């Protein structure tokens, strides 16, 4: 959409890692799902905690610089119509795992990143170099986005209906339902669900968020604009 600012691919990758509760680790001949066992350290390395005595932990200890890939699938937290439509993006990080100490008896391993790939419906498929990933920052709403979207969808459906008035009327023709599916520092994205397709529309904030605390006032500004649109339409 012309004039709309979007996160860079590197920023999206950092945001995905911050927001994700789980990831899939692939090493030659083996894969494992890790839940709540990853973070990005100050050096920009992806660090995973491997259960003590696990097959993967033993392999990392036996073979430093073990070839590995990490995959994350970003799922919309709100109830959109189709299962496939819930996938907002996918990320793959490739490199080499290296032992990085212990945590509560488990083995920490850091991924020396070679390259990363983002597959995103907005940005497309983008290759990101390790230096760009390390230099990028996650979105200020990375940790709060899912809760904010679920609260908006479940507790304030009338607010979602009001926000839809900021969308050009011709885009709303034939819409069955409107669901918030994304929120970042630049704005909130509403999904317009039609009989056999969907369309995502971004409503930009008046200024990009610097902190998560600014989300509520920015949303109030959008709702005020929506009420103004309603009054203007009613006056014609």
Top keywords for this entry?
three-stranded antiparallel sheet; 27% helix; alpha+beta; eight-stranded antiparallel sheet; 2 domains; 236 residues; Pnp Oxidase, Chain A; Split barrel-like
Describe the structure.
By secondary structure, the protein is α+β, with helices and mostly antiparallel strands. The chain has 2 domains: 9-135, Pnp Oxidase, Chain A; 145-235, PNP-oxidase-like (Split barrel-like, Alpha-Beta Barrel). The protein is built from 6 helices and 11 strands. It has helices at 9-19, 55-62, 130-135, 145-155, 157-163, 215-235, and strands at 22-27, 30-35, 38-40, 46-50, 66-75, 87-103, 106-120, 124-129, 177-184, 187-193, 198-204. Strands 1, 2, 3, 4, 5, 6, 7 and 8 form an 8-stranded antiparallel β-sheet that branches. A 3-stranded antiparallel β-sheet has the order 9-10-11. Strand 3 and strand 4 form a beta hairpin. The chain is elongated and about 65 Å long. The mean pLDDT is 92.
């Amino acid at each position: 959409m012309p004039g709309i600012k979007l996160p860079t691919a590197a920023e999206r990758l950092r945001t995905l890692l911050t927001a994700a509760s789980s990831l899939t680790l692939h090493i030659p001949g083996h894969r494992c799902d890790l839940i709540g066992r990853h973070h990005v350290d100050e050096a920009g390395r992806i660090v995973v905690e491997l259960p003590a005595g696990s097959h993967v932990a033993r392999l990392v200890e036996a073979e430093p610089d073990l070839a590995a890939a990490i995959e994350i699938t970003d799922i919309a937290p709100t109830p959109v119509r189709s299962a496939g439509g819930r996938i907002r993006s996918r990320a793959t990080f490739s490199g080499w795992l290296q032992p990085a100490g212990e945590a509560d008896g488990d083995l920490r391993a850091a991924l020396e990143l070679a390259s990363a790939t983002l597959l995103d419906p907005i940005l497309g498929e983008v290759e990101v170099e390790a230096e760009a990933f390390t230099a990028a920052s996650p979105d200020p709403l990375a940790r709060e986005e899912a809760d904010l979207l679920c609260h908006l969808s479940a507790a304030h459906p009338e607010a979602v209906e009001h926000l839809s008035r900021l969308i050009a009327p011709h885009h709303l023709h034939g819409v069955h339902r409107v669901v918030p599916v994304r929120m970042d520092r630049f704005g909130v994205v509403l999904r317009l669900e039609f009989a056999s397709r969907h369309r995502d529309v971004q409503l930009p904030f008046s200024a990009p968020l610097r902190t998560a605390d600014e989300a509520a006032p920015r949303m109030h500004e959008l709702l005020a604009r929506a009420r103004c649109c309603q009054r203007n339409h009613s006056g014609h």
